[in-house]
Every structure is written in C-alpha cells, then in structure tokens.
Amino acid sequence: MHLSSNQAYQSSEFQPAASQDVESALKIGEGYESIPLSSRSIFDATQESSTSSNSFVKLLSWILDSHAYVFIVSVLTIWVLFSDDIRISACTKEADNYFFGISTAILCLFSFDLVASFIARKDYRCSFYFWLDLLSTLSIIPDIGWIWYPLIGINSDSEDGQTKVKYSKTASQGNQASRIVRIVRLIRLIRIVKLYKNARIAMIEEDDEGQVHTEIDMIPQESRVGKKLSDLTMKRVIVLVFILISFIPLFNLDFYVTPERSWTFGLETIEHFLGQDGFINVRDEYINYHEDDRRPLIYLTYTYGNDIYIWKTSTNPDDLRDTEKYIVNEVHSQAIIDLRSDTHLDSELNICKTIFVCILLTFGALTFTRDAEDLVVFPIESMIRKIRKIARNPLNACILSSESRSASSIENQKKKFLCFSRKAEKAEYETTVLENTIVKIGALLALGFGEAGSKIIATNMEKSGDVDPVLQGNKIAAIYGFCDIRNFTDTTEELQESVMVFVNEIAYIVHTVTHQLMGAANKNIGDAFLIVWKFGEDDVLELDDPLVLNHNSRKAGFLGDLALLSFLKVIAKINKDPKMLKYRNHGRLIKRMPNYAVKMGFGLHVGWSIEGAIGSEFKIDASYLSPHVNMSGRLEETTKLYGVPLLLSGAFYDILSPTVQGYCRHLDTVMIKGHASPLRLYTSDVDPSNIFPGEGLDKNKEQTTRLRKALKSKLDRGQLESWELFEDSREVAALKEPFTEEFYDKHRKGLEAYLKGDWLDAKGFFEAALLVKPGDGPTVTLLSFMKESNFEAPLEWEGCRDLIDK
C-alpha cells in the first residue's frame, strides 16, 4: 500500500523511533539542526507535504475568490435558471444536444466549485450552504436529457400519454424546486442585498490632517451580529420558499388525476365504431374537431383487418420532443396530439415564475430583517465604524461629536424603501443614546488628552484587555509655543469666581487661532498654555541636537511661519475682541491696575521631545518632555526682561522662510538656563495701539476645522505660500506699522556694535533708535546692561551675556 509522506509520518508502524525524535526536537524548540540525521528525511517529507497541501489550498482559495471566477459562476448560474425553459420555448428539438452539452459542462464546473469550496473553506464543510450547493448542482441533471429522460422513462414509446403527463408533472415540480436552490447559489454569490446596503453607507473618511482613509474595498465590513442575523433570515426564507414551491402542488387534484381529454374520448369512440356503419363520419368528425385546435391532431392511424389507415399533417411527430406530443393508444388505433403551444406557454410561465421567486427571495432578504437592522444592526455597525475611526485618530471624536449634533437624528429622518418614504416615529432608542454616548466619551477623551494622548487612546481602543494608560514615549520633532497671561495673580484676586470665565475666554482665542493655523493645544496650566506644531517623520532628517529638517518637505517649510503667525494673530485678537476689551472697563481691575488691558507673553522654540503619558494609573497627563519644551517656557519668562510680548529662539528663527525672517528682529545673544551654547534671541515686533475693536471669534469649531483643512490643502499643493499670509494680513500690518525701516537700521547697527564689544558705538546707535521709537524695550534693556559696565565691554566678552541667574 502506498503512503504519502504525511501519512507515513503519522503512521505508528513506520519508523516510530524516528517520529519520536522529530516530535521531541520540535517540542523543545531546538529546531531543524537538533533532529537526528536518520529522521530528517521524514521531517523534510512532512514539511514538503504540508507546504504542498497549503499551496494547493491557497490556489483553490485564490481561484474561488477571484473576480473572474465569481463572475463566470454567477453568469452560468443565471443561465441554468432559464436555459431549459429557453430551450423548450425558443428552440427546436435539433438544438437540444447543444443545450445538454452546455448543461453537462456547467454540471462539471459546479461540481468542481463544490469540491474546491469543501477543501479550501473549513467553515463551509457540511454547512447549510454546502447542502444547498449540493442540491443546486444535482438539480442541473434534469436539464441534461441524455441522463434525465431515461431515468424518468419519458423516452419510452410504450408509455401512453397519460403516464407521460404524470412523469412530466413530477419532473416539472422537481425542476421548480431545483431552481430555488440555484437561485440561492446566485444570491449567495453576488450578495445583492448586502452589497447594495453596504455600498449605500460606504464612506471615504478624511481625518483632521486631510489624510484620506477608506474602508476595506470601499465597503464597511459587516458586523458579526448583522452577518448572523442575515444568514439566519436567509436560511429561513430559503427553506420557506423551498417548502412552498415543493409541496403546495402536492395538494392539487390535477397532480394525481389527469382529466379526460377529448383526444382520448374521441379515439375510444373511433375504436368502438371501427368496422360499423357511420365509422367514416365519426373519424372525420374527430379529425375536423382536433385539426385546427390549439393542441392540433397531427397523426392518426388505425388498423381494420389487413388494412392500415394513416392520416397525418405536415408536422412530423419525430421532430417533436417527447414532452411536446401526447400519444393516445387504443387496441387498433393511435393518435398523436401536438402540445407545443402548452409546453411553450409552460416554459414562459416558468421563466416568469423563476423571476418572481428571485424577487420574492430578494424582497424577503431585504424586508424580513429590515426592522431588526434599522433598530439594532445598523446602529451597532455605525458604532463600530465610529469606534474604528476614533481608534485610528482619536481627535476625530470631536468631529464626530459635531456631526452628530448637526445631523438630523434618526427619528426625524425620512425612511425610504423602494419608491416609498415615511417619516420615522419620534423615539429616543437606546441604541441611539448609546451611540451618542460613545461619541461624547470619545470627544471628551480627545479634549482631555489632546494630540499628545491620541496614541494612548488609539492603542488602548485597538487592543483588548485592561486599560494601560502609561505607554512608552514617542520621540517627535515639533515647534513649542508657550504663552502666559500677565498679571494673573492680581487678576485672580479681583475676579474671584469669574476668573474661570476670564481664562477660558482667552483660551478660546489661543486655541482657535492656533488650531486654524495647524497647531494643537496641549497643556492648560492656570495662566499658561502650551501649543505644539508637530512635524511628520518625512519632515525630519535628523531627530537630535541640532534638529535637521528636510528642506524638500513643504510642511517643514511652512510650519514655522504658521506658528509665528498664530501668536501674532492671538495678540491682535486679545486687543480687538469685545470679550477681552470689556475687562479694560472692569472697575476692580482698573482700581488695582490702572489702564489695565489683557496682555500675554509668548515664547517659541523648536526641537525634539518625548510625547507620551506622565503620571500613574491614578491620573495621567499626555504631554511632551524635553529641554526644548522647557526652553519655550523660559523664553516666555524672558519676554518680561526685554519688554516685548514675544521671544523666538535662534533655532526657531532659522526654520522660518526668508520673507518671514524679515518680520523678525535680532535682540540679543545670551547664555540661558537649559541651553549649553549661546542662544540668539529674536522677536517679531508688535504694537497693538493701531488695533481697533472688532468682532469676536465665531464659536464654530466645524468652521475652524474646515478652514484648517483648506489652508493645509493649499499649502501642501503649492497653491499658497506661507509668507503670503503675512503680507495679506491686515492685523499683522497694523501691529507692525509703528516700526519703521529707520528704527530697524539704527537698532541693527547698534546690535552689531554691541556684539563686537564696541559698546560706545552701540550706545550711540541705540540712543538714535530710541529717538525714532521711544521706550523700545530691547533697546532700553541693552543700554541698561551696558551702563552697568560704563559702556565698556568686559575683557572676556565674546558677544554673549549670561542670563542663567536672571
């Protein structure tokens, strides 16, 4: 007996010791090298057999799942639904063999499909659909006359017409029942209903950064609940229709008793009068009565003595199919009736009946689960899609929340079915409440964790098990903007409970403006806010000190400009927004701080940081840790020393576009805590005296998000340059108006002399600059510093002063 390699390996009679060697080596995980040489051939044969088997199964799966194969099988399934009726109603007997040949080929293909599916798909074996496919394959046999006619005896000329009619009825009912399972094959293959429903709700999703995400094959995956419900309903509909089609005809009298026909009665009369007077009249009456009937007489013969009489028409009975003629036999006579009109009409009705059953099954699949799907399945699938969207990018939860608010609720929508529509009943279903709750929780998580916590949320939502909020950090490159509310202690003491409103009104301006210009709010620390502009992996060449950006990346070229523009616009907004201006007239604030106005300080720096969770399982904050984040805070603190609202680090200045660098001024070069090398300090000068009261920001987050996406799209495509935003901004122009070229020229010359150590020359230029722009903070600060040394640079002066202790 021949054994395959796999069988040989599994056989206990074939080298058991070697088998044990292989098994023990594999169990302890020592690998192939640990298997004894005597057993390696067995192991190799086993692996080769397993690989061959897997390859064969994969090949079968590839064939079964290929679009071409599915299309061919679907087309052939449609063909076998109607082929036999088309053969009878539209073709002559000569064409039968061609139809039988096609049906034989289809029978072979469907047999292959059945066997291949049985091998390649474990869940298909002996399942409900396996037995249906088996029946549908066997149901093709009645369409193959070479096989079917001998089985039911319809070829036998010895059978009379009544017997053949019974055979035909039995075959017809069998064919009707078999067509049901063929229809099921078609519906199961192309999944008409589900494809339609899913295509209707297919979505192309775009996240907050404009990245397009699509569901698999553009069609959302069916939930397990929906799939189970659909399968159960489909099975019951199939069984119900199958039972109706198969068994209802059994309750008809016509199925058991064939009524007497005039053909039979007339031939019995001829047989009775044979050889008697009046026979000729009876015969002629019989012929005349049936000759022009819808079922015409085409052949009549009788024998009287040695004489044989034959009457026939131009229609040859041999040219008709056995089912198309009715043969009446008596002792001495025989008549043949042409039944083609009946068979053609029956085939046409069968085609209509098949189409009706297709519609019935489709209608059943579409309607029987409709209420359950509307109330349970669709809401569950909608929840799953939203959860997946939140898991992919938790910041999408805020967008989903706004969409849920703006979209019409399910009870206010018109439900449509076919050409009918109705307004849904107003009801707050639990599934709707649950879905809205999930979105709200996701939105709260996104607001609480921010962009820095998006990975924490996404990771925990994608995996099962306990929540693990403390994950390993992720090193990223970003621009860090730190801003602080000035005189906050005094303001808090005077506003008391209202201070929360005060802070939140400022926070809304800061967050809205920076969000629109590609920033992301992170920390809210009482009077301070941290804003982050993150670079992508493709935007950075070296994620270290110093940070090296990819100059071929458009984002790396415009993100710095947007960060600076954000803070300039924030300064303008807090000096024009009515909600901010009202505090200038607040009695208690003015009494404590005369000429009070809302003011803020800003610091901007760029570098790497570790993005992640800080805390424990009791409480965490998603934030950024690095010296560069701290540096942005120190820059903000240093603004008080120089009397300016905004300070930029030299590293940040270097990533600005050349045009935007022209909007900045070099103030000083210093040694500052947290920075090992000299740090160049820059500012972008602002004077809010030319900013006039205006309208406040519209509290419409959706509009802000749309503007952000539109801006990013234009910048990415090169339709807009970031420096154009500065030149086109009236707010920036108003902030810059008091600063003239004469002032900048004198200050630049003074700074150059100061850095070189020529402090007397620097004094002259700085004083000339103050004549142009009196009270300029950086100029006054440097003059005060040089005055401490009587305007003589120290011997160790290297163009950098020490601010570490200040």
Tell me about this structure.
The chain has 806 residues and is of the alpha+beta class. It has 32 helices and 19 strands. Strands 9, 10, 11, 14, 15, 16, 17, 18 and 19 form a 9-stranded mixed beta sheet that branches. The chain has a 4-stranded antiparallel beta sheet with strand order 4-3-6-5. Strands 1-2 form a two-stranded antiparallel sheet. Helix 2 crosses helix 3 and helix 4 (67-90) packs antiparallel against helix 8. The protein is rod-shaped, with a radius of gyration of 45 Å. The termini are far apart.
Shape summary: rod-shaped
Output the number of helix runs: 32
- Strands, total number: 19
Q: Can you give the mean pLDDT? A: 78
CATH topology of the domain at 474-690: Alpha-Beta Plaits
Second-tier CATH architecture of the domain at 474-690: 2-Layer Sandwich
- Name the poorly predicted regions: 1-40, 161-174, 189-220, 405-414
- Which CATH top level class of the domain at 474-690 fits? Alpha Beta
CATH homology superfamily of the domain at 474-690: Nucleotide cyclase, GGDEF domain
Radius of gyration: 45 Å
Distance between the termini: 95 Å
Proportion of residues in β-strands: 5-15%
Q: Summarize the amount of helix as a percent range.
A: 55-70%
Largest sheet: 9 strands, mixed
Class computed from helices, strands and strand pairing: alpha+beta
